[in-house]
Amino acid sequence: MHSLYPVSGVSTSSSFTLVGSPPETSNNDLFTSLEGKTLSEQLDVLNEKLTVQNRIKRGAEAMLAMEMTMALRIKVESELRAANEKISAINQRRIHIQRSAQSQRGMVGRPERADSLSVKIEDYRTVLQNAQGYLKALSNLSRPPLPKSASSSSSSSTNAPQPTQDVEKQRIDLMIKLIDVFRRYLRVRYEINLAEVVHGAIPALSLKSSKQSRAAAYRLIRHAIVDAESVRKLTDLGIDWYIIRSLNRDMKHAAEKEQVIKLIRSMIEIGTIRREANSSSSTTTTFGNSSIVPLSEAVTRAVIAVAEQPDEPFRLICIQTLAEILVVDIDLLARTDGIRFLLHVLSDGPEEIAPILASTFLHVVDSPRTRSYLHIGTDLEMALSAVTDSYGKDSDHAEKMRACTKVILLMLRTWSGLMYFCLDEMWAIRSLIAMLKLPSLELRDVILDMFFELFNIRIPAWFQTFIDGRRLTMYRRSRDGPKANPSRSNTTQPPESERVHHPLKLTEQYTALLLIVFTKAGLIDALTSMLKETTTGSTLSRKATLLLAEVLQSANHILPLSIAASMQAVPEIFSLASDYGDNRHRIIGTLALSALDSFNRNRARLESSANAQQASLMSTRGTKSGTRPRGNSVEDAVRRGQRQVEQVKLKMSMQIDDKVFQANLLETQVMTTKDYTKWKFDILLGLIEGPLLNPKRMEETIKLSRFIRRLLWFFAPFSHKFSDIPNKMANQNWIRAGCSLLTTLISTPDGYKLLEKEDPFLNQIVQCFAQLDPFNTGTRSEPVFSKKRVAETLTFGYFEMLGVLSCHKEGMELLEKHLIFTAFYHLSELRNREDLIKGIIEHLDYSVDGHPRIVLSKALTSTFRHIRLYATRHLGELIRGSVIVNAWVLKLLLTQLYDPEQDIVELAVRFLEEACESKEVLRLVVELQPTMDHLGETGHPLLMKFMSTQMGFRYLHDGGYIDREVDIWFSERNIFYVIQVEVFLSKVFNFSSSPEDVDEAIGSDAIIPPHFYGELAKTELGCQVLHEKGHFTEFAQFIKKHGLESEDPELIMKLKSVLWAVGSVGAAEGGLHFLEEEDVIPAILDIAEQSLVPSVRGTCFFVLGLISSTFQGSEILDDHGWEATLSPTGTPTGLCVPVDVEKFVTMSSWTQRVPQSLIPRLLPPTLQTELEVITAIQNLANTVIANAASRTLARMKSKPEYKAVFSSPVMFYRALHMISSQRYRMPVRRYILDLFSNIELDPSVLATFEDCKTSLNAHPSYKPSPSELTRRVSVFTRTRRPSESDDGDDEEMDGPSEIAPPLKTKPAITTRPKSRIIGFRDTGRATD
Question: Does 285 score more than 50 pLDDT?
């Protein structure tokens, strides 16, 4: 066992060997006395040595507390380290010897556990002692050496001798050891005094220390903080000034800056506390229930400066840190100008961080308290600038525009973003639409693509055909039409046109609102204006036409009739088409109407063709599409025609005469050669599927020719003809031929007899299966059904042939007589041959009760997990593909609910959920009364489906499920439901997801998840339980009381959960009377139109859609100004939009809140030199005069009269105060700190800083006197000496290294007029 901590001075010894001893640690004489002793004697010796070393340790610690010379101190510290190392080595050896003794005696049970517990306790005490020893040693290293004479006692701490390399190495080693202790034993952190850790680490943060030492010190401090109180203490100890100085270092100190940033993030994570609402502070009404980030404004501005620097390697992590502060404590970021910086990053990039910042600002907008820090019309609109300001930019700007559109989509797909952009009469949305009218092809193309994605319009396969201007009537009529994507052929998602209609799709509900908003903002007019540009049509105009057609089609589908009709009118296009006074307008209008008409006429045909091709591809791959073909579908006529043609061909082939039949037999070349490559496959297949179906033809062929026997010989496994053919696409036709041959043989008496008794085909297959028996040692060659042959040859086709036999009664008899099923039973027990089991399960027919179902059930209960998983998945596909679900399938699927593997259980639950969409299947499952208490959270969706039927509700109520779940949902699960819905919406609307994931989410799961109260209200018994519990009355009261809550996040979350519960109850026919009794619908409408929280309004929007899913609910909402969307048959679809959209989407405006900095002002300096330096530093913040100020500071730095100023801790404090209260770029901050580089941040300087906080702070009512203002201005415009120049004032300062030296001579000619300054020093001298 190795030591838990790195201990120096310990090496390996091999001079002796102990029983069970590990590699020895260093000192040879430390454990030499253990040689030849028993384990108990070794423990006694080690205990004695441990006592001696502990005494040495205590004595050394006592001596270190006294004053002594540096040489003696170093010697004592060396002895202390040696004692600690020996104590650690002895404890390690004791633990190992104790374990060795236990293993030798075979000790198990309680004695061993007791010993191990005592070892752990003793080990923790030892670790704590070691940590305290490391900390004391670290503190001792930080003490300066005792003076040798009185004359040296007055030396400043800044002139202390530089620590030697050995001392610094010891300090780093001690800090690393302490860090290791803190990481391994969290409890030790609480036992160690944080102040001692900081005092021991601060000397390592000095300028004279190495960057590795400073990095280790920050890391040590980070691991020492444990709670908010420790973070507060850390700030009181003055760590902020060290953090500021480290953050301003260049890229050479990357390791140090990394540890500083990690420390800052840990302080935010650990030290953030929530402001209490009942606080007596005057800021309670201002901040509400927000949190306080334990960072000072000085540190926050330092982080902002790092984030502003483009070449800074830690820029992204600093931006993310600022974004986190924005969410937690927006006031801190507002006081330090961080909000403005983050808005610029959102606008200008980096692109990878823009979505995170967009989501952060959307969270800010969702609360009236936090969004008051934003300025309407200028702040969040900066996210649109890459698009709205792109006109006239070069081609490289296109990528930036596309990245900007992704951010815009993200914002428009949230309630906060949509309602914010609807402020000022939809000014932001109108500006986006106005981009379609600018003469920039690239810009308009990007905007059109954005609208396609925004309205959830999937680009059809015939998109390019339409854009190219070709006729849609010719699409897919050529043989080289587009093929389906094979990578998605195994999906089981049904085509959109075939999906079962659901009462509410959240995406459709939101898209309906977007259509109305953008239509009112002028989208259709902008698209129409694009059509006017050319009479012949361009790519962009046709793309605009397609978008217009899709928008009109979506409006017809998801909007109420009155709103959709007004959009369908497109009056401007009709006015163009009817303008007989202008032929150009007529042509444009006619072409647009023709294109829209062509789109509408061909849309159904094109979608049906695509769906038919997808279903065909799935069927050829052996998967199910999950839908049943409709009798009135477009492709049904094609299928009927194909079947009629095949029937005619079959009749004609069976009526051929003998000569033609014999000629065809010979022409196949089967009887003339055994080489199958020379056989005529088409003629051969035609004979098998045609004339040979006639029993007389089959009898003649078997008795008078070798045709049938030659074919069976070819397919026989041991002939190695068919079974050796490579598995290629061109060769798979032979599998079809084999299946057709077996079907033809069993359909005639002579063929059946041939397979039963005369031909060895089936017997050879059984023998091949027997080769796989692990106890069969008779075969030496490779088995026919080896894993390699099944994968690389057509051997796998035998399973398909056997599956064809299982589809017929005669075939089943043959399989039973030849013991094929017995072989299947044995194969299902093979460990690593899942390929065979999959082939058997996939191809057997289960329509008749018999052996195939037994084989499937045996696979479902196999001992191997992967086989059970595949069998369960195949069982689900059987349910999806069957027209009528049989009880035996449901019984097998219910059996999988008790599988020990959770993934198999979840798969079975999902299949049962899909199957229970049918009321008949749901009735069958309830009749079986499965026990589902063991499923936990996995089975809740399925059990809630049971609740929707009277029988299922009784079954669950008798089992106690209803009473238990009602209480759970009322107390906590309502909140979880809100989280589930909002997470789902963010997933659906997340543009960064892959297209496949988005398609799957939008297509299948974009319906509202089932709610317990909604399912409860679907039955009379459920409504009775809901009434008895009284929960709905409490919900209604809560909505009326807290409906307009905008501050407390917990109340807002509960309000959302209550709204979803009420809406789910109102979506049921039997639950609407609850809403009418409590009169809660008007309250929900008031919240939807008056709430200050956009997400609460959005929740009400979806809830009102739920209520509109019933006839009575839609009528009630229609009376209140909300119109429901009806299907063509007049059935409510669950989509509802307000008639007055502006009232719903418009928030009330606000006045921007500009908080004042909490950093107090300082009194001005009294000395003229100090005032000049401070004024020059202040001028560095002005980019216009920054270079002149830097040159002024450089001259001051070189003059002896200013040396005291740049060596003064008070002036250093003033400089730090300025960069902590004003915005300075990173190069300027480094330059300012370099001016005071000779000042070390030691305890004496920190004490001076503390004194300055009280002595220099000006009272809030302080106003400078006129004389002070005069002195300050005089320094600001100080006259220059002849050697000074002003030529570089207009240059931008890039950093301290680029400070231009002053010119030595004055220019001979200047264009500046002479001026005379009155009232300043040297007033008689003219300036140029």
Answer: no
| Amino acid 515: pLDDT | 93
Q: So what's the pLDDT on residue 777?
A: 58
- The backbone torsions φ and ψ at residue 12, rounded to the nearest 5 degrees and listed phi first, read -90, 140
DSSP classification of residue 252 = G
Cα–Cα distance measured from residue 676 to residue 679, given in angstroms and rounded to the nearest whole number: 5
Distance CA 147, CA 160 (A): 11
| Mean pLDDT value across residues 301-330 | 93
Which pLDDT value is given to residue 49? 82
Nearest 5°: the CA angle 740, 745, 749 is: 155
User: So what's the pLDDT on residue 1038?
Assistant: 94
Give me the helices (H) in 882-960, please: 887-895, 902-915, 919-928, 940-947, 950-958
Is the pLDDT score of 1217 beyond 60?
A: yes
| Distance (Å, whole) CA 220 – CA 179 | 6
* Nearest CA among 257, 245, 85 for reference residue 177: 85
pLDDT of residue 9: 36
User: CA–CA separation, 302 vs 321, rounded Å?
Assistant: 12
Show contacts of 34-42: CB within 8 Å, 24+ apart: 39/97, 39/100, 39/101, 39/104, 40/101, 42/18, 42/93, 42/97
- 454 and 991 in contact (C-beta within 8 Å)? no
* Residue 620, pLDDT score: 37
Query: Which residue from 651, 798, 654 is spatially nearest to 739, judged by alpha carbons?
Result: 798
Q: To which H or E segment does residue 273 belong? A: strand 273-274
Q: Which of 497-501, 744-748, 872-876, 1002-1006 has the lowest mean pLDDT?
A: 497-501
DSSP 8-state secondary structure symbol assigned to residue 414: S
Quote the pLDDT of residue 897: 85
Between 975 and 115, whose confidence is greater?
975
From CA 957, how far away is CA 951, in angstroms rounded? 10
Angle (CA) 1274 1276 1281, round 5° = 75
The structure tokens listed for 870 are 């595949």
Asked whether residue 789 carries a pLDDT value surpassing 80, the answer given is yes
Helices 110-142, 165-184: inter-axial angle, 10-degree rounding: 150
What is the rounded distance in angstroms from the CA atom of residue 778 to the CA atom of residue 771?
Answer: 8
CB 958 within 8 A of CB 976: no
Q: Which residues pair with 292 in a beta bridge?
A: 273
- 3-class DSSP string for 554-613: HHHHHCCHHHHHHHHCCHHHHHHHCCCCCHHHHHHHHHHHHHHHHHHHHHHHHHHHHHHH
* CB neighbour list of residue 1202: distance below 8 Å, 6 or more residues apart: 1169, 1173, 1196
- Residues 183, 855: Cα–Cα separation, whole Å: 55
Give the amino acid at 29: D
Decide if 547 contacts 451 (C-beta within 8 A).
Answer: yes
Taking the C-alpha atoms of residue 739 and residue 798, their distance in angstroms, rounded to an integer, is: 9
Angle at 662 between CA 661 and CA 667, to 5 degrees: 95
- pTM across the whole model: 0.75
Backbone angles phi, psi at 1122, to 5 degrees: -120, 125
* pLDDT at residue 914, as a whole number: 80
Whether 28 contacts 13, CB under 8 Å: yes
Nearest to 1256 by CA among 1221, 1204, 1228: 1221
Over the chain, what is the mean pLDDT? Answer: 77
Q: How far apart are CA 204 and CA 198, in angstroms?
A: 10
Extract the tokens encoding 227.
Answer: 């709670």
How many Å apart are CA 563 and CA 566, to the nearest integer? 5
Cα–Cα dist 822/1163, whole Å: 100
Confidence check: pLDDT of 302 > 80: yes
The dihedral through the CA atoms of 724, 729, 730, 732 has a sign that is: positive
